[in-house]
């Protein structure tokens, strides 16, 4: 069940925005500073926050209440970052029976915890205590193919170890306590699901093993390490949800069976969420982490690049997943995101680092919440992000229409320049039809950039069709005719 992602396309290594450079000198020295000083550093590192307008606030409030009413989710808590600052936090609905939700309440964040686990490993790598290329056998020699599976495989979901929790409910064994060693012994000792690095498959087991490695290398409990190196320096109030239910002052946990009434959600036994879905916090706390991500303040710039770069499989195919986080493009914007789901709670957390904008949404129901957190996040994004240029949307549609024609060896010659008409002769069209047609319709068609050269507008796209990842370069004249349309396999 826990945090399985169903979205987010691939993106290449992230660009370092100029504004983030301000935070670099503090990346290694801020950890020993008082919380208030750290807060001032994070504030100074970003541009002045762009406050929401009354209309935007009203739109967000209306969207949240509408989704709660439509899905039956009992409550939601949100935080919005704009201009590198938290500009809005609000809560709606009832966190517990007859108790209104407040922004200070904590919710379990599920698999959004995984990016914190990955950060712990990266911090230890910065300390020189381990490497992402270290084999798992260094700490767990008895696990299957432990000499062939490395830390990077674990964090990027490419190890081949089976997932111990694919279900959307708390199965019987999960109601009793367990240990990381027991989980690893049960689910990481059968034969691998695939060769390490050859495929991508979401597996909570990977992160339980990674968390156990953090404890062995750091010489302290996993939560203690995170508090020392991340939570305390950033001033985050984080609860260990693996240790037990949240306090009565926090949001309660609910589920719905089918279309039935709200029911109290059962709590997973201690040990089952370790390092894979262990954390609980307020939306404000998670937004604080999002700002640190924008400013590259909690880790070194190199560690952030590692975490936010889409992993490529051994055959060269990009997975769209970095280290504990989905990476992709949305309407031309770089997007870092992850969802989370544990019994009674769901989370959607999205960061647009180049826009210095982030959206955090919690709900306290799972299963049976109708995807409320994702719906609310999508509506907030539509309200606060600049709208996509209609002309660019039309050009993107043209790019896709041409591709669909070439899949069948055809092209609309009326929109081509004379040069392009000559280029797309019978042989070229036959080659395109034979090579693209067998791949099937694209499952991803994402704009990745544009530039101007020689009076032509050059637009680049990333296409996923079947198992192939393709690059498209399309050139258009000022009048909108297509001078070039070249599809090739992605390098």
Q: How would you explain this protein's 3D organization?
A:
The model is unreliable at 3-47 (pLDDT under 50). The chain contains 13 helices and 16 strands. The protein has helices spanning 35-45, 54-71, 114-126, 151-155, 180-187, 204-218, 222-234, 283-295, 301-307, 372-384, 390-406, 418-423, 426-437, and strands at residues 75-82, 85-96, 99-100, 107-108, 239-240, 254-256, 262-264, 279-281, 326-330, 333-342, 345-352, 357-363, 444-453, 456-465, 468-476, 482-489. The chain has 2 domains: 18-384, 3-Layer(aba) Sandwich (Beta-lactamase), CATH 3.40.710.10; 390-489, Nuclear Transport Factor 2, Chain: A (Roll), CATH 3.10.450. The two termini are 34 Å apart. With 491 residues, it is α+β, with helices and mostly antiparallel strands. Helix 2 packs antiparallel against helix 10, helix 3 (114-126) packs across helix 7 and helix 5 packs across helix 6 (204-218).
């Amino acid at each position: 069940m826990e945090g399985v992602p169903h979205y987010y396309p691939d993106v290449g290594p992230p660009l370092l925005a100029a504004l983030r450079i301000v935070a670099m000198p503090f990346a290694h020295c801020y950890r020993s500073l008082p919380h208030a000083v750290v807060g001032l550093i994070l504030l100074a590192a970003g541009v002045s926050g762009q406050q929401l307008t009354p209309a935007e606030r009203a739109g967000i409030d209306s969207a949240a209440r509408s989704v709660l009413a439509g899905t039956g989710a009992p409550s939601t808590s949100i935080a919005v970052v704009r201009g590198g600052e938290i500009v809005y936090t609000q809560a709606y609905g009832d966190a517990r029976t007859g108790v209104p939700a407040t922004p200070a309440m904590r919710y379990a964040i599920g698999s959004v915890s995984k990016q914190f686990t990955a950060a712990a490993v990266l911090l230890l790598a910065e300390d020189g205590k381990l490497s992402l290329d270290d084999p798992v056998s260094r700490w767990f020699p008895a696990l299957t193919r432990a000499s062939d599976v490395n830390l990077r495989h674990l964090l990027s979901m490419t190890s081949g170890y089976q997932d111990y929790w694919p279900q959307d409910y708390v199965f019987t064994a999960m109601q009793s306590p367990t240990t990381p060693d027991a989980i690893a012994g049960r689910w990481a000792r059968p034969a691998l699901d695939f060769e390490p690095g050859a495929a991508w498959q979401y597996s909570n087991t990977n992160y339980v093993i990674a968390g156990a490695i953090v404890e062995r290398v750091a010489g302290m409990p996993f939560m203690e390490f995170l508090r020392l190196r991340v939570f305390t320096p950033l001033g985050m109030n984080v609860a260990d949800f693996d240790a037990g239910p949240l306090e009565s002052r926090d949001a309660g946990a609910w589920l719905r069976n089918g279309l039935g009434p709200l029911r109290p959600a059962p709590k997973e036994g201690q040990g089952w969420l370790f390092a894979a879905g262990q954390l609980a916090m307020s939306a404000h706390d998670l937004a604080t982490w999002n700002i640190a991500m924008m400013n590259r303040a909690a880790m070194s710039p190199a560690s952030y690049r590692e975490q936010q770069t889409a992993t490529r499989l051994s055959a060269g195919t990009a997975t769209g997943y970095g280290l504990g986080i989905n990476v992709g493009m949305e309407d031309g914007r770089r997007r870092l995101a992850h969802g989370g789901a544990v019994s009674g709670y769901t989370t959607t957390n999205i960061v647009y680092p180049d826009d210095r904008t982030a959206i955090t949404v919690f709900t306290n129901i799972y299963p049976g919440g109708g995807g409320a957190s994702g719906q609310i996040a999508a509506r907030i994004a539509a309200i606060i992000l600049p709208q996509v240029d209609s002309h660019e949307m039309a050009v993107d549609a043209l790019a896709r229409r041409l591709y669909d024609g070439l899949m069948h060896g055809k092209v609309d010659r009326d929109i081509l320049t004379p040069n392009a008409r000559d280029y797309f002769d019978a042989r070229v069209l036959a080659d395109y039809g034979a090579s693209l047609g067998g791949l099937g319709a694209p499952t991803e068609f994402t704009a990745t950039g544009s530039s101007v050269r020689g009076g032509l507008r050059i637009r680049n796209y990333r296409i996923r069709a079947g198992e192939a990842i393709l690059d498209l370069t399309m050139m258009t004249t000022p009048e909108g005719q297509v001078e070039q349309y070249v599809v090739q396999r992605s390098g």
